[in-house]
Amino acid sequence: MTHGTSARDVVEAVKDVDFPAGKDRLVEAARKAGASAEVVAAVRGIPPEQYANREEVARSVRVDPDSGLGTSASQRARQARAGGRPGQSQHLREVPKTPVEEELER
Asked: Residue spans with biased composition (Basic and acidic residues) (predicted)?
């Protein structure tokens, strides 16, 4: 885990990437964006896969679980109840939508 690096830092570092994107392109984008060495190291630590969007990148990078992506306490509780893939940390599970977000999608 990279201490001092948040999921928001990682998302900000890859904001200009056209998705889908692979790990090498994400690392290069973080460097070009002037991200800190810790953020670049965090991006370098993700699995070598194709990522569809920044949210997938944020879920794959190992950062402080408390850094979050702006999830509320109720969303974190729903993440814990919903489960996830075997061995997946709670903070990496899919974030449930709030009732307002659900209503807006209708």
From this structure: 56-65, 91-106
**Residue 35 contacts residue 57 (beta carbons within 8 Å):** no
Count other Cβ atoms within 10 Å, centred on residue 5: 24
Whether residues 62 and 83 fall in one domain: no
* Structural domain boundaries enclosing 40: 7-66
Do 29 and 50 have their domain in common? yes
For residues 38 and 99, give the distance between their C-alpha atoms in angstroms, rounded to a whole number.
Answer: 35
d(CA 93, CA 36): 26
The number of folded domains in the chain is 2
Strands of 1-106, DSSP E = 21-22, 50-51
Separation between Cα atoms, residue 28 and residue 78, nearest integer Å: 35
pTM over 0.70: no
